[in-house]
Each structure stands twice: as C-alpha cells, then as structure tokens.
Amino acid sequence: MAKPTDNSELFLDQLIASIQTHLPTIEGIYMTTSLYPPAMTPGPGIVKWIGYTIEPANPSTPIDDAPPLPTTDEEKLAEETAVEDASTLSPEQEAQADMATDAGYGIAESTSAGLSYDPDEPMIFPSNNSGDSNNSFSSESDGESIRGCNGSIITPSTAIINAMRKWGITTPLARAHFLAQCAHESGNFKYKKEIWGPSGAQQRYEGKRDLGNVVDGDGKRFMGRGYIQVTGRANYTQFNKGVSDDVVSNPTLVESKYVAETAAWFWKTRKLNNLAIDDTTASVKRITRIINGGYNGLDDRIKKFCGYWEKIKENPNLWA
C-alpha cells in the first residue's frame, strides 16, 4: 500500500498515472437502433468499443516561462528553506526599511536600504514623498468594502500563479491584492523592465549606497526589472538566495524568467500578507504606500483590486 501523502502535486500525479493505466483497458458495447439499407428498416445494432487514451503532457514544453515546481518532498523542503532565507530580514533591517518607507521611498529602495543596513553608519533618509498628498487616511469610507467596480482584468499567467504559490501568497484576499498591485505596476503585465535612457532618472542609481550599487556599472546592470521592479545590487543579491539561477551574474534573467517571482519576493519580504486582511480602501492604501512610497495610481489600484476580488469571491480557489 502506498504511503499517505499531503503533497497535492504528488497525489495528482499518481492519480493521473493510474487513470492513464486503467482507461485503455476497459471495454464495452453500444446497443443501438440502426437503419439498414436498402429498405432502411430499423433493426438492432451493436458497436464494440475498447479503451480511452490520454495524451501525456510534454514536460519539455515551457508554460509561460514559469520555473518548474518541485516534484519531491526533498525538493519542496529545499525550496521552502531557500524562500525563507531570501525573504527574511533582521529586526534592524526591517526597521531601516520601514524608515525609508516613512520617508516616501518605494519598495525597491526601501527594501535595499534595509538590506544595506550598517549599525556603524546608519542612513538618513531625506523626504522623498512623491505620492498624492490628497490620498490620506481621512475618508470615512476607507473602512468600507470596495464595491461597484467595473472594467476588465488580465487573467494571470502560469508563472504568476506559481510565484504566488512558491512565495506564500495563498489566501484569496492576498491573491487579489497582489494581482492588483502587479497589474498596476506593470501596465497590466505588459512591462517587464524599466526603460533606461542616457539622461533619464535611472542614472541616479549609479553608485547609490542604499541600493547596494558599489561597483561601476551597477546602476544599469541592476536596473528595475519584474512586475514590481526589483532594483539595485542589494535586492538582486538577496532575491538570488531563493532561486536556482544566478541572477546576480545574469540579471537579465529577471526580465525573462523571474518577472513574477521578484514581485512575490518583495511581497513576502515586506510581509504584505499581513496588510491584505480585508477588501477595504484602507488596506489597498497601506499596501500601496509600501510599494509606491505614496499613493500614486491609487484609483487604478483600487479598481484592479475590486476586479480581481470579485472573481476570486466567486471561486476562492481561483488562481491558487
């Protein structure tokens, strides 16, 4: 007798294998009434049938460029350990990151500031609040459930779904909040990296200590990539602990393979599941403030959250 397992992927693989083995062996007959020429008079007919066949999936065919999920308990444990290692900040690092958020820095710079924490040389964060100051927590309706949204949403790809599973974005509310923020930040999952111009704002990344850019050329090498743009050597280095590829040596892998995982890494590292607790405007604002450093694009984020939440409420297991 097979040993019991709580690994759903393993269970389903075994179930499918059993079905593929069993179905080709069954057989039977159809009892029919047929019309026989030349007079086309009705008479009994018998049609014998045997077996069904199920074409196996081709494991060598990539699906949405999604990294494969682990297939054994050992692989799953190794992945979980790597995820925890990559997404865990020390209390001092968390405090540093929160200080940067309070100063108005977006999630890439605030997270990397935490990762670059030096007790002998603490950072001072000048105000960088570029968010909409009119979007404060003063509205009485902030605590009410968001209703009456309209407009289409983009169905998440396999890569996004796998990233949510791997990095622990599993509750219905967390999935709705995560998908909404990613959709807004990436223009409905269209943009996978920022546009680097010779005289653009990205030039300021070069030599930035709070991004961990300590080597000449790091600014462009570790430009923003992913649905929630991971930026700077410090962020790339920390995320690198959670994946099998070396994205520090090959940072362009982020835009080709890890656009969703880097966003999910940010989410877990900054504990945004703890803020995705209800379907109110207040929750969207709190999450937006950490990701954006302010409330830019808040209306669109709310609209997208409402769209995803309406779908997930209909089926809580959707995109899980």
What is the fold's blueprint, element by element?
Elements lengths: L7 H15 L4 E10 L4 E10 L22 H15 L3 H12 L4 H9 L42 H9 L5 H14 L32 H4 L11 H8 L12 H5 L1 H11 L11 H12 L5 H17 L6
Antiparallel strand pairs: 1-2
Helix pairs in contact: 3-4, 4-8, 5-10, 6-12, 11-12
Order of helices and strands: HEEHHHHHHHHHHH
Q: What count of helical segments does DSSP give?
A: 12
Strand content: 5-15%
What's the architecture of the domain at 73-126 and 159-314 in CATH terms? Orthogonal Bundle
Per DSSP E runs of 2 or more residues, the count of β-strands stands at: 2
Q: Give the uncertain stretches in residue-range form.
A: 54-63, 131-138
CATH class of the domain at 73-126 and 159-314: Mainly Alpha
What CATH calls the topology of the domain at 73-126 and 159-314 is Lysozyme
Class per helix and strand makeup: mainly alpha
Distance between the termini: 30 Å
Radius of gyration, in Å, reads 26 Å
Instruction: Give the averaged pLDDT, no decimals.
Output: 84
Question: Major sheet, described briefly?
Answer: 2 strands, antiparallel
Q: Trace the largest sheet across and list its strands.
A: 1-2
Tell me, briefly, the overall form. Answer: elongated
Helix content: 40-55%
Q: Which key terms come to mind for this protein?
A:
320 residues; mainly alpha; Lysozyme; two-stranded antiparallel sheet; 2 strands
